[in-house]
């Protein structure tokens, strides 16, 4: 409790001070301001609600070293076509650089990049993944995962480690399936119509 003396002293100190007048209305703008925390919670809620449509899985990975080569071809790919890919003789129509990415970032980038390549009718390109030479354990983490991911995508027909001038064992050439439109054009062209 305050004494009369304390009350008197308070009133003397407050002499000349005018109270702030508040309007008799609610401040609507204040409730519409979004804090950084609210933005982050909204973003997290959207991400949780969005299903991951990326089929690339992080399963058992056979760890590869800096000089290990990547090589894969689906049944039906002719030997001469694969040799031309292996020698880097197809045009590099698109490039993706995965350096300094986490495994999850690389997984998303590879899926989105190859999906976009298919959408644009890209047939061949280069993915730069690094060799892992700077890793203390000398394991090429992204390259190791890429060796598992690429065969999981049915549109990837073949891939092989690049020639030295394109990054050697730190990069990989890839070949994609023809788009349905391109297959139709080839049918028309070679059927004589």
UniProtKB/TrEMBL annotation:
<feature type="domain" description="Smr">
    <location>
        <begin position="96"/>
        <end position="177"/>
    </location>
</feature>
<dbReference type="InterPro" id="IPR036063">
    <property type="entry name" value="Smr_dom_sf"/>
</dbReference>
<keyword id="KW-0540">Nuclease</keyword>
<dbReference type="InterPro" id="IPR047688">
    <property type="entry name" value="Endonuc_SmrA"/>
</dbReference>
<keyword id="KW-0255">Endonuclease</keyword>
<dbReference type="Pfam" id="PF01713">
    <property type="entry name" value="Smr"/>
</dbReference>
<dbReference type="GO" id="GO:0004520">
    <property type="term" value="F:DNA endonuclease activity"/>
</dbReference>
<keyword id="KW-0378">Hydrolase</keyword>
<dbReference type="InterPro" id="IPR002625">
    <property type="entry name" value="Smr_dom"/>
</dbReference>
<protein>
    <submittedName>
        <fullName>DNA-nicking Smr family endonuclease</fullName>
    </submittedName>
</protein>
